[in-house]
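Reopening this ticket.

The earlier resolution said the output was attached, but the attachment link was broken on my side. Pasting everything inline this time so it's all in one place.
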Amino acid sequence: MPPKKPSTRRTRKQIAKTFVLDTNVLLHSPVSLNAFDDNHVVLPMAVLEELDKFKTQSSELGRNARESIRKLDALRANGQLSKGVTLPGGGTLRVLVTPEIGKAGLEEDTPDNALIRLAYELGRKGERVIIVSMDINVRVKANALSLDAEDFEHEKVNFDELYTGYTEAVVPADIIERLYEGQILDSFSAKCFPNMFVKLTAAENPDTQAIARVFPDGSLAEINLAIDTVYGIQSRNVEQRMALELLMDPSVSIVTLVGQAGTGKTLLAIAAGLQLVQREHLYDRILVSRPIVPLGKDIGYLPGDKEEKLSHWMEPIFDNLDYLLRKFQPEPPPGAKKTPRRQTPQDRIDQLLDTDILELEALTYIRGRSISKQFIIIDEAQNLTPHEVKTVVSRAGEGSKIILTGDPYQIDNPYLDASSNGLTYAAERMKELPIHGHVTLHRSERSQLAAFAAKYL
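Inline output:
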């Protein structure tokens, strides 16, 4: 028997990596310190200086900075941070002073350069160093120095494989006929998630088709044909029809709608809200918010009361309300007494606000609230981090329904992208829950110009 070859397996200690974290990682998610398993985490002193600058803010960034600092303070009980302390999830944490090295291009005393210089020095000492930053330029500068750098992947989803909310299947014609007759099928062979839709095509005749919905118990039924027009708005394509099905179902407590500009996400959500609040009285009011201002930023710098301040950020919502109320304003019944003038859409919007049917709220003030029996619309949710989406969704009380809408291709937050924003994160992570429904809308219905702009620009 030939002698055994010596083992080439390396120990855990030998293969451990050293992750040097940028400030934006901690500001994005305070739990990031525990996201690196049994590896080593290093924080440059410059990161603590930057956290100190954010800690007094009343914004979400300020809260995350304070929480990160508290976590670091608690870790002091495990030893000296400069020598390394054990993290609760495994691995170690060190806080190190940036060395002075004469590396061309990094002489300027900036937090980014301090981080890169420290990573460079640790690499020279033989550590397997990886810079973790949500700042693209930091990653580019690190790469220029032959340092490994990556984005913070802990709360990311694969956007190219994002759950769309529907699938297609070819089935025997008798299955579609049974659905046409109103039968509910006990199960469906394809892997499906609760409240997912299936575009069925008959194997014998491709022209025979049906749209069915998978319910949380696994049963399959044709979509509710009565839900095609809501508050005067008629669905213009199959995806909008699916969205209306979810928006009008009170058993679906959270709906995520993803789509490019003009696909009808916000319009459908508002129309469903008006229908369910004004006409069917399933909810007490519609609460609308948009994170045009980053979550938690104070709006006190604008003149006027809260409604006047918010009106600047809510213009897209008013545009949709104006369209709904202008196009579908009911005509007075025959013989009715004529009024001096008919109400304008703006009059009716003001009436909705005055009677508390519609409420505009800044995300600043959602933290700490318990919002019960309301139809909550968070527009432009792609500008929220996963942690901020958790904060918003956790405010929904008993009997409330929350709608998250947005376009992952139009993100204003410099540290988020199509894979890391809160909207796509929520859509992917909640897809197996029976109270969640999702639809990705592709076709722009706003106008031909808007459709061309979304496609070609």
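Reporter confirms the inline version is readable. The longest strand covers residues 166-171. The chain has 15 helices and 18 strands.
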